[in-house]
Amino acid sequence: MFNMERLVEKAKVLQEALPYIREFHGKVFVVKYGGSAMTREELRESFARDIVLLKYVGIDVVVVHGGGPQISLALERFGIKPKFVGGMRKTDEETMHVVEMVLSGDVNKDIVALINRYSGKNVYAVGISGRDGRLLRAKKLDKERYFRELGLPVPEEEVGFVGEVIEVNSELILSLIERDFIPVIAPVGVGEEGEAYNINADVAASEIARHLKAEKLIFLTDTEGVKDAEGRLLSSLSKEEARRLIETGVIREGMIPKVRSALRAMESGVRKVHIIDGRVQHSLLLEIFTEAGIGTEIVHSQT
Fold first, then answer.
1. What is the pTM of this model?
2. In a domain, 2, yes or no
3. CATH code, 105
């Protein structure tokens, strides 16, 4: 049945988005894709449609994905028990083979196919690993520094082939963007001898955003965003406020490396970082193209 009021509301939504579309045209957004948004079918389709829409309104999108649950399932199928050290996946040589197979193979190509299902002529997603073109040059993670920065005890057990990024081949990403491709990047790094490293996807996304000097870095998570000491969502934080919340223990556990990655990216030219709930359909569009947004934005300073 024809419903004029509903049509008018849709038109108002488009009008609200117009200033943001104009502002962000030609800018680079790096989106870290993970959590429930990767596993629930309705959220997967919502994400893919959002990415294609961003590209068609002139925003250059780079997707960096995780795949922890998929890796654990694959390890179990191969009879390898997943092991964690201080919350970090222990990655021996055998595990690293499976990690790369899952991230650079199954997960990466599945995301590429999903995005391409909704893209049209001359706009395609292309999947690459951090080892392709030495995209993510890496070295073995400095375990002592990493855990001390998180305020956690340093575990005695080694973490294996867990790496940290030392350089990003941004020219490779930019060459894909210039040809209207949507890069979809698996967070597998490459060492000096060609060895593979398992890179935390949040860290990989942050380093890529840093080197591209992206307009926005967006983390899709399984939480509403950053919360205060009373558990209330904080819609906006300055860098200084974010550091204070880490120091006082309000930001804790898995949110600490995410926020630290955000701050590091912003120190190198990224204008804003968004931490949003990937369990909400079209969360990307709601955060980017509406005044209220739905998650937490970290900005250089509060005005």
1. 0.93
2. no
3. 3.40.1160.10
